[in-house]
């Protein structure tokens, strides 16, 4: 995989709670009233994962993949959206030195979210298959300890499963840019929360003033593959307020076997 | 010999695009699909140093030298594939996703994809009603040599077919669909196993989306070059 060498994945120590059972705002959760342990209404959360994944992990609902247990889990069409609109909360340490910048990255949110970090609110736009990267440099705590709360909302059109079921249920989910099997298909029963959640990796990345973004590697061939070229294009972002004089280098190492490289 | 350093200035508070001069390789070890040869991978590392600061960022990706071509065969109407100029008989498997509740893990991807390679398959088709698969999925497809046919999020049942006909014009927000498609392409485009982007399952996306996708994903004219010896036409792999 592409590796950002300054990336810290946030995949442990998360808590979750149903939005209707938490009486604090995101600003309060990330300043004066952070949850401190998995005590009701908070529970240990699966991140990356979905709301239903977290509920199954905590045995709040039966595992939908056994027998007819899926029938015992209320469908979002009957419960309403708020029932599967969940808070996810965690803390992380990040202490920056001068001229360093920090991004908070979400590789996949279904379907959109309100992010609160140390009392600051950021809205993540809709769409299951898009990454989000937020420059949080100016809102990190100087002492390095940070409070993060994410309120995740389900897809706009979760639909209703007709009594006869069918491929894609009533097809309402197709109005959103999200995975379509979640209303049920010939190979799977409906997913009750429509896979709402922080379904892919969350990370923080710390860089200097200039950041490398989405390099594109392309190879071209000539003379029956004897002659090849590697074409590399990348975006660079200078977040500082002065012109950055840079040296940009690329190195290609033959990967022999697992982690043995020929340089 | 495969190290290149360039010096440039990046203006304050700005975002620029930079292209290195191409790196030359003589007889590179090529990446081949399962059953056709080795899946040779190179580790490409990009670093950026800033004067009076030091190393500012670095990035790396495993990369495979390969050229994948495919076209619809007039005689059969089927899609024929070539890898590095060699025709390949596609033995493919359907893939929906690892887990219905999206409990995705590298360990599971490794096991599932190695299983496909052990079954002597050489392609996995990611169904449009599932996910744009994740970098961890593609990493193991790179490693075990499974070509990937990746569909975007359109299916016949939900978008314009079925009875009654549903969502004939696809999702409500076409700009959002295209934004997600472009961001997904940027996330996955460097994986050698990625063989084909497909508009949807059993259904063509709405015209505006389909046209935009075809335009965004066409071969960049810059790579349609003729070699100075006019012996061959270089192709974007």
Describe this protein with a few key phrases.
heterodimer; A: 263 residues; mainly beta; six-stranded antiparallel β-sheet; four-stranded antiparallel β-sheet; 3 helices; globular; B: 237 residues; alpha/beta; four-stranded parallel β-sheet; three-stranded antiparallel β-sheet; 14 strands; 20% helix; 31% strand; disordered C terminus
Question: What does this entry show, briefly?
Answer:
Chain A has 263 residues and is mainly β. Helix content of chain A is 6%, strand content 36%.
Q: What does this entry look like structurally?
A:
The complex is a heterodimer of chains A (263) and B (237). Chain A is mainly β and 263 residues long. Chain A has helices spanning 26-29, 51-57, 76-79, and strands at 3-4, 7-9, 15-18, 43-44, 86-93, 101-106, 112-117, 120-124, 132-135, 145-153, 202-207, 210-222, 227-238, 244-255, 261-262. In chain A, the strands form four sheets. In chain A, strands 4-3-5-10-7-8 form a six-stranded antiparallel beta sheet. Chain A has a four-stranded antiparallel beta sheet with strand order 2-11-6-9, with no helix packed on it. Chain A has a two-stranded antiparallel ribbon with strand order 12-13. The two termini of chain A are 20 Å apart. Chain B is an alpha/beta fold and 237 residues long. Chain B has a four-stranded parallel beta sheet, with helices on one face. In chain B, strands 6-7-8 form a three-stranded antiparallel beta sheet, with no helix packed on it. In chain B, strands 4-5 form a two-stranded antiparallel ribbon. In chain B, helix 1 (106-118) runs parallel beside helix 2 (135-144) and helix 3 runs parallel beside helix 4 (207-216). Chain B starts with a strand and ends with a strand. Chains A and B meet through strand 1, helix 2, strand 12, strand 13 and strand 14 of A and strand 1, strand 2, strand 3, strand 4 and strand 5 of B.
Give the topology, please.
The complex is a heterodimer of chains A (263) and B (237).
Chain A: E1 3-4, E2 7-9, E3 15-18, H1 26-29, E4 43-44, H2 51-57, H3 76-79, E5 86-93, E6 101-106, E7 112-117, E8 120-124, E9 132-135, E10 145-153, E11 202-207, E12 210-222, E13 227-238, E14 244-255, E15 261-262
Antiparallel strand pairs in A: 2-11, 3-4, 3-5, 5-10, 6-9, 6-11, 7-8, 7-10, 12-13, 14-15
Chain B: E1 3-10, E2 14-19, E3 23-26, E4 41-50, E5 54-63, E6 68-72, E7 79-83, E8 86-88, E9 92-95, H1 106-118, E10 123-126, H2 135-144, E11 147-151, H3 174-188, E12 194-198, H4 207-216, E13 225-226, E14 233-234
Parallel strand pairs in B: 9-10, 10-11, 11-12
Antiparallel strand pairs in B: 4-5, 6-7, 7-8, 13-14
Helix pairs in contact in B: 1-2, 3-4
């Amino acid at each position: 995989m592409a590796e950002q060498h300054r990336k810290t994945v946030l995949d442990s120590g998360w808590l979750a709670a149903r939005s209707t059972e938490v009486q604090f705002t995101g600003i309060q959760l990330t300043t004066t009233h952070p949850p401190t342990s998995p005590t009701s209404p908070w529970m240990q959360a699966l991140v990356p994962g979905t709301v239903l994944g977290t509920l199954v992990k905590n045995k709040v609902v039966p595992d939908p993949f056994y027998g007819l247990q899926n029938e015992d889990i209320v469908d979002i069409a009957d419960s309403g959206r708020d029932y599967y609109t969940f808070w996810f909360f965690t803390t992380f340490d990040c202490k920056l030195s001068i001229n360093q910048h920090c991004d908070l990255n979400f590789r996949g949110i279904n379907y959109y979210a309100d992010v609160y970090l140390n009392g600051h609110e950021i809205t993540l736009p809709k769409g299951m298959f898009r990454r989000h990267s937020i420059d949080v440099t100016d809102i990190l705590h100087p002492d390095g300890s940070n409070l993060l709360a994410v309120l995740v909302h389900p897809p706009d059109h979760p639909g209703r499963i007709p009594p006869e079921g069918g491929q894609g249920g009533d097809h309402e989910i197709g109005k959103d840019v999200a995975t379509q099997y979640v209303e049920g298909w010939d190979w799977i029963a409906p997913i009750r929360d429509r896979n709402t959640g922080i379904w892919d990796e969350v990370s923080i990345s710390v860089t200097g003033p200039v950041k490398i973004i989405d390099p594109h590697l392309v190879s071209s061939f000539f003379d029956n593959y004897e002659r090849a070229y590697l074409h590399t294009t990348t975006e660079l972002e200078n977040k500082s307020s002065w012109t950055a004089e840079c040296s940009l280098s690329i190195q290609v190492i033959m990967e022999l076997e697992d982690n043995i490289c020929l340089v | 010999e495969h190290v290149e350093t360039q010096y440039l200035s990046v203006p304050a508070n700005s975002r620029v695009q930079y292209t290195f001069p191409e790196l030359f390789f003589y007889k590179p070890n090529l990446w081949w699909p399962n059953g056709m040869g080795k899946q040779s991978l190179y580790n490409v590392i990009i670093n950026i140093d800033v004067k009076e600061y030091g190393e500012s960022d670095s990035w790396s990706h495993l990369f495979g030298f390969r050229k994948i071509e495919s076209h619809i065969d007039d005689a059969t109407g089927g899609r024929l594939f070539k890898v590095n100029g060699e025709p390949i008989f596609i033995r493919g498997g359907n893939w929906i996703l690892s887990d219905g509740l999206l409990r995705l893990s590298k360990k599971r991807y490794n096991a599932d994809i190695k299983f496909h390679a052990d079954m002597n398959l050489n392609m996995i088709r990611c169904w449009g009603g599932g996910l744009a698969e994740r970098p961890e999925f593609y990493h193991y497809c790179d490693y075990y040599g499974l070509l990937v046919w990746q569909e975007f999020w359109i299916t016949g049942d939900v978008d314009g077919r079925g009875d009654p006909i549903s969502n004939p014009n696809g999702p409500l927000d076409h700009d959002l669909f295209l934004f997600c498609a472009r961001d997904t392409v940027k996330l996955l485009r460097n994986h050698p196993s990625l063989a084909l982007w497909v508009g949807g399952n059993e259904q063509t996306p709405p015209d505006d989306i389909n046209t935009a996708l075809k335009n965004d994903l066409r071969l960049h004219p810059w790579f349609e070059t003729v070699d100075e010896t006019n012996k061959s036409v270089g192709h974007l792999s």
